[in-house]
Each structure stands twice: as structure tokens, then as C-alpha cells.
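Worked example

This section walks through a single chain of length 254. The input is the sequence exactly as stored; nothing has been trimmed or padded.
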Amino acid sequence: MIAIVSPAKTLDFETKIDTERTKARFFNDSKVLLETLKGKTEDDLQEMMSVSDKLASLNVERFAAFSSRHTEKNSKQAMYAFQGDVYQGLDAESFDESEVAFAQDHFRILSGLYGLLRPLDAIQPYRLEMGTSLRVNGSKNLYEFWGDKIAKKLRRDLKEQGDNTLVNLASQEYFKAVDLKALKANVIDVDFKDFKNGEYKIISFYAKKARGLMAKYIIKNKITAVEDLKGFNYEDYYFDEANSNDNLLAFKRG
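Given that input, the structure is written out below as C-alpha cells.
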């Protein structure tokens, strides 16, 4: 089993983590993207990414400073570098050595720049959302650029485990980058609903954090079977059997 999540816009490269780091497996593809990105002006990035002047300027600086060597000074392990709602729920700093090792095999982060990251893959500061319409080498956007590469890598990772289940905890924007025909896996979607104004509904902030909580639950309990996911009970969520099926696990709270 492999669980996948989206990255985060908020980053922390100040706090250093004393553990091993691995090399992103699509780094050569990342360098192709960076060649194009380094040629973009602030106005280009502002229009392409729909960001403020300040953020556009910051990312021009980031892309210009990007190095082909990921060192302890300029990079950080992906699982610890990303912050935000999902990663608040994940709480990676709480993992012990055996849990980090399990995560390295069973947890993946989708990325517009790096394609697919393992938890300990070193990354440098960047912002490049998967939905960005960046034209590179004949591709009109990042979905076309990545094509079926991400799915094939996931498929190989699953094959190494002797398993065929992918737990989708990513946003729609990022999961669209996974070519399901090339993946050829059993995909399990997960819904989290909270009770508000007399009904159960998906509330973005809580749902994002819950995705991280589910990833944490998988890693802490070293879960490899779908049936065991039904026991998820962090922060008062519980399994909603009535609204679940073979390809969807529903949880609610309140």
C-alpha cells in the first residue's frame, strides 16, 4: 500500500532535521523544468501562477538560486520541508526511526517540480503548482509534461511491495497527474466530513488536516491492508460505513 498527498505552499527550511536524505528520482526532469523557469520574469510568474508581486519576486529568486546539488545548507527532506494543513495533521516530527523507514516505502508526495517525492527526498525551496500552464518541450502544461511517468513510478513502487493499492489523500489538482491507465492499481479515495449547520459536509481546512492525520495513522500503525484503515479514529473521526464502498472510505466527525 502507498498513500499519496499533495505538497504545500508553505515551507520550512529553517528547522533542520537530523536524518538521512535521498535524491529525488525525477531530478533530471526537474532540471528541464528549471531551465524554463529560470528564464521567466516576475511578470511572467505573476501571470502564470496568479500570485502577488512579492511572491513572484520570491520565486524568481528561488529559481535563480536553484542548485544542481542538494546540500544540507540549501535543501531539506520533503516530508519535513512542507508545512500547511495536511502536514500539521501528518506531524512528521513525531515519527521514530522505524516509522520514518515505513514512510519512505509507503508514503509519497506529488509535486509540480519534482513529480513524485519520497519522504526523505531532498528538495530546495520552490513554488510550482501542478495546475500551472507551463509550456515545456512541446508540453502545454505540467500534466502533459509528466504524462504517465508518475503513475509508472508508483506502479513500480507498489510492485516492489507485492501490493496493488493506492490510497488517494491528494487534492484533485494533484491526483490528475496520476495516469490511472498506466497505474493499473486499486485506488481508494477517502472522504472526511464534519457536522456543521445541521448536516455533514466537507470543510476544506478540516479535510486537508484529516488527510494528513490519515497518513500519520497509516505510518504510525504500519498499515498495509485497506480493511485496517477503517479503524482510523484520530481527532474524533470515525468510519462511516453507510457512505463507503469498495473504492471509497468515508469518515465523519461531530
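What to look for: The longest strand covers residues 186-196.
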